[in-house]
Amino acid sequence: MKTILAIDSFKGCMSSSEVEETIAGVLNKNGVETLCLPMSDGGEGMLPVFTSAMGGTLEPVYIHDQMMRRVDAQYGVMPDGTAIIEVAQACGLTLVKEEERNPMRSTTYGVGELLSRAIKRGCRNFIIGLGGTGTSDAGIGMIRALVDIFARGKSFDEALKTELGECRFTLASDVDNPLCGKNGAAHVYAPQKGATPEMVEQLDRRARLFAEKSALHFGFDKSNEPGAGAAGGLGYAFMQYLGAEMKSGADLLLDLTDFNGKIKDADLIMTGEGSADRQTLMGKLPQRILMRGKQLGVPVGLVAGRVEDREELLSAGFSFVESITPEGMPLEEAIKKEVAFSNLRRFATSLVYEKT
Questions:
Q1: Phi and psi at residue 130, in whole multiples of 5°?
Q2: Helix H segments across 151-184?
Q3: Phi and psi dihedrals of 79, rounded to 5?
Q4: Helices 140-150 and 234-242 meet at what angle, rounded to 10?
Q5: What one-character DSSP code corresponds to residue 267?
Q6: What residues have CB less than 8 Å from 86, skipping those under 6 apart?
Q7: By CB neighbour count within 10 A (0-12 exposed, 13-18 middle, 19+ buried), where does 158 fall?
């Protein structure tokens, strides 16, 4: 029996590779052939997944985080010169302590620095992973960094045509929110980044004003495009100022790795994520994998740290939907790494017995 493991990270607990290697270790010992395909939908942790899948290398850099503190970061470089940028390397929510979170102050300046390092290295094609940010500045900080670095002695428009004009940006994200309004970046995502209700209103007004001024300057407005609200509005800045194209991060990785070719002779695909519920069916990685499995007639099972809406997920077509966490175990206990590894091995062992 050949099983494909294509599981997203259990965020805050285990990487995609750690989840898959743990399951594979149990299955292989019991005679099950496995193929591990580390996965990411473009959020936090996408850099090593995309870089490895595309045969690239990681380049270390020294930039600023969202509080303008110096921080070590990386970007990926592919053999063809394509650069992989994970914006969470510069402004990730995990870079700041909970008591430090303040999206009124936090900036995406470091994202602009990451881009500039890759551009100066000669990269002209970019895949940008949007997700896991602690910012909600609509990309203003990123644009400011690009102005500081590339527009000295000339206008930003001139810099766009020269240093940045040859660059092509593809955004990897599963977020389709607009920039402003009740479904926009501030209202939907800023509270989890430390914003109070008053801050949310201020952030939304700031983003709206930025979009209005930008539209007057360029003669077009990308603030209502699907994904403009991704990463605290970074999606908007990339589309409005740099002509970026938004794509499903999951589909992008699956296409780049010839996923369909790898699964056509499989008996089972196992996918998953840290927390699975009805939102999983709204374009997230497991749902994208389910669609491809259906197209080729390969059953797809789902494993997660936590599961809600099980019947809805089963009705969508998953052959099984399982949580690795025993019923009644507190979340703070379940997300401890050693506990999660133990629960994952127990799940894999039970799966072997069920299949045999």
A1: -100, 125
A2: 156-161
A3: -55, -30
A4: 40
A5: S
A6: 44, 45, 46, 47, 75, 129
A7: middle
In angstroms, what is the C-alpha Rg of the chain? 21
Cα angle 55, 60, 153; round to 5: 110
With residue 152 as reference, give the H or E element that holds it: none
SS3 11: coil
* pLDDT in the model for residue 242: 95
By CB neighbour count within 10 A (0-12 exposed, 13-18 middle, 19+ buried), where does 101 fall?
Answer: middle
User: How many Cβ atoms from other residues are within 10 Å of residue 117's Cβ?
Assistant: 20
Residue 354's pLDDT is 66
Pairwise CA distance, residues 290 & 302, whole Å: 9
Residue where the block lists tokens 């300057």: 217
The rounded mean pLDDT for the chain is 93
pLDDT in tens, 316-355: 999 999 999 999 999 889 889 999 999 999 999 998 766 5
Q: Which residue has the tokens 């992973």?
A: 129
Residue type, position 108, single letter: T
| Dihedral (CA of 259, 260, 262, 265) sign | positive
Q: Percent helix, strand, coil in the chain (nearest 5)?
A: 45, 20, 35
Could you give the CA distance from residue 129 to residue 231 in angstroms, rounded to a whole number?
9
Structure tokens at 155: 């206008």
Q: What is the mean pLDDT of residues 241-245?
A: 96
Cα distances from 339 to residues 71, 97, 343, 349, in angstroms, run 31, 24, 6, 15
- Provide the 3-class DSSP secondary structure of residue 199: helix
* Residue 164 binned pLDDT confidence (cut-offs 50, 70, 90): confident
Q: Are 170 and 247 spatial neighbours (Cβ–Cβ below 8 Å)?
A: yes
pLDDT at 282: 82
Residues 93 and 132 sit within 8 Å (Cβ to Cβ): yes
Largest CA distance in the chain: 71
A 10 A CB-CB count for 121 gives 13
Measured from the Cβ of residue 7, the count of other Cβ atoms closer than 10 Å reads 29
The Cα 143–Cα 149 span in angstroms is: 10
Per-residue confidence (pLDDT) for residue 222, from 0 to 100: 98
Residue 251 has pLDDT above 70, yes or no: yes
CA distance between the termini of the chain: 11
